[in-house]
Amino acid sequence: MAILCGDVGGTKALFGIADIAAGKPQFVFRRRYVCADYPSFEALFEQFRRDAAAFAVAGGCLAVAGPIDDDGLGAGITNLPWRVDARSAGAAFGLPPLALANDFAAAAAGIGSVAADALVTLQAGAPLAAGVRLVIGAGTGLGMAILAPGAEGHRVLPGEGGHVGFSPQDGDQGRVHAALLAAHGRVTAERVISGPGIAAIHRALAGEDAAAADIAHRAMQGEAAAQRSLNCFLGAYGAYAGDMALAVNARGGVYLAGGIAAKILPLMQAGPFMAAFAAKAEHAALAARMPVHVVTDPELGLKGAATLAARES
Fold first, then answer.
1. Could you tell me the pTM of the whole model?
2. Which domains does the chain have, with CATH numbers?
3. How confident is the model at residue 152 (pLDDT cuts 50, 70, 90)?
4. What whole-number distance in Å separates Cα of residue 28 and Cα of residue 16?
5. Which of 41, 188, 192, 251 could form a cystine bridge with 197, CB 3.0-4.6 A?
6. Are 16 and 4 in contact (CB under 8 A)?
């Protein structure tokens, strides 16, 4: 039996067809699309429908970078003016409404299927097998989900932790906060800890408009101004991840997903991320016992959507 699955973010969308006859989803078809190439989700999904026309599917799940409506039948994408309708998406394949999931709920659901070589450990910690796991990821936005232990394994709890208020911890972060406060009013963590956040940091600290990927590349090449901006980003990211880990007592591990961490892995390993994660005053010892891993699998969300779809089938 085949299912369709998707992972729709603010920049790109991944779709696939997976065979679940063996109990674990095995992909038989995948496609990647750039969201900017399409005027709407419907146009993008129609392209996928044509590309996957040779496959018969029995159900599916779409992971969406935004909160799901209370009735489970719709969702808005936070960083795009798009709506996803579960009924019309299912009808495109002759199916009932597709399941919808927050993108980081899907990422959390996919953690159990991540291969060992797709995890890079920043801190081994002292993991508890039955402990809470936290999945965080900076990309176009900043996502978060929790895996809470239960009698039948870990339960996925989606959240919008990327939209909590940003708390600056040093002078450079204070300058960034002031610039963003003047531009936007309330400053959320996502405005700093994301791809657009890297660009905003560099604008505030270096007075230059540049793309996040260019700033990161220059930082890895040793350019001082870009390194200052990336160090500010990493310090903010590490402090936020550590704060969220303390909030849920993530002794099962902290998993850093999203599009950025894997692309700047040398900076994640050598920069100020872990120092900021661990700087927790009287709870520094607790933070040190929490394992921290970078997930390098770019299909984590897609695999998680397939896992959720398989559970529904």
1. 0.92
2. 2-110+299-312 (3.30.420.40), 116-295 (3.40.367.20)
3. confident
4. 8
5. 192
6. yes
